[in-house]
Amino acid sequence: MNPLEALTEIAFLLERERSSRYKSRAFRTAADVVAGLSEDHLRDPVRLRGTKGIGSSTFAVVSQALEGRVPDYLAELRRRAEAAGASSSTLRGLLRGDLHCHSDWSDGRTSIATMLAAAERLGYEYVALTDHSPRLTVARGLSSERLEEQLEVVGSLSGRDTRLLSGIEVDILDDGTLDQTAELLERLDVVVASVHSNLRADAAQMTRRMLAAVANPRVDVLGHVTGRLVEGSRGLRPPSEFDAEKVFAACAAHVVAVEINARPERLDPPDDLVRIALDAGCLFAIDSDAHAPGELGFLDHGADRAERLGVPAERIVTTWPAERLLGWTRRA
């Protein structure tokens, strides 16, 4: 087995099962190191052990791969992934892409190219890069200047099997305006608008804020609508309060998709709000909100939930082919 492929798959599976980010980072670092080594270097145990970025676990993986077998650690991770089971929903097979993922330009853990390669491996038709906007400093949100730079990088990655769409997860500010210039938002393929601050504001204030954002013609997707956290290392967080009937009626009127955020610690919106959005006639986007390549696999969770709740495939924009999807995002 190819050592580089083994290390990369291990990192992917660790990310997918939400293992320690330090573990997955160790294997991605080792993969980067191995990619630059000669065959002679790889097959010299003494030199390989002494190479910076290669630890005892990654050394074992490389050595076993060079022996022509699946490394023990990779075999164990594959067994665990099989035991956890993939999505059994019909809907999962209909999803063509993902409109919400992050790179190391903001708070993601890998490069844009690495995220794109993972999407290609999963067979996606398209994936949107949606790093954060400037107000979210804790997540290294992109200033206008950095977003301009990122657009050049996205352009340089065209022509791949998976189409990389330009995008942003833009903060909805307290008054409902968006945390990026209108001119730049107009240039993007996909705009996901999310609330990240003052999540405990009263329902009337939060409703006004969300209604203003949804009415902005540059918004395509309303991201993780309640901001809740139901498990995980960040602890628990109750959902924001707002008038869901008014907000989802506005989403339907402005043809803005409601995100079904597939991160296991979010599962946002809650089931009752998905039903309200369904009754309002909303479109939906099943998104991973991935911050690492393996997390792109979270779409399984979102597809299972959407199918259980009876969301029709034709109302899920991420089942649409790229040209139809882009026709929708350019509707303004």
Care to describe what's here?
The chain is α/β, with parallel strands linked by helices. Helices cover 43% and strands 10% of the residues. Strands 1-2-3-4-5-6-7 form a seven-stranded parallel β-sheet. β5 (221-222), α11 and β6 form a beta-alpha-beta unit. α1 (3-16) packs across α5, α10 runs parallel beside α11 (244-254) and α11 crosses α12. It is globular.
List the helices and strands and how they pair.
Elements lengths: L2 H14 L4 H15 L3 H4 L2 H5 L6 H11 L5 H13 L12 E5 L10 H10 L4 E4 L14 H13 L6 E9 L10 H6 L2 E5 L8 H12 L6 E2 L21 H11 L2 E5 L9 H10 L3 E4 L11 H10 L13 H8 L3
Parallel strand pairs: 1-2, 2-3, 3-4, 4-5, 5-6, 6-7
The secondary structure category is: alpha/beta
Strand content: 5-15%
Largest sheet: number of strands, sense, barrel closure? 7 strands, parallel
Q: Supply Rg.
A: 21 Å
Secondary structure tally, helices: 14
Percent helix, as a range, is 40-55%
Average pLDDT: 97
From the 3D structure, determine the CATH topology of the largest domain. Answer: TIM Barrel
Tally of distinct domains: 2
Net shape? globular
Q: In total, how many beta strands?
A: 7
CATH class of the largest domain: Alpha Beta
Q: Which strand order does the major sheet show?
A: 1-2-3-4-5-6-7
The CATH architecture of the largest domain: Alpha-Beta Barrel
Low-confidence stretches: none
Order of helices and strands: HHHHHHEHEHEHEHEHEHEHH
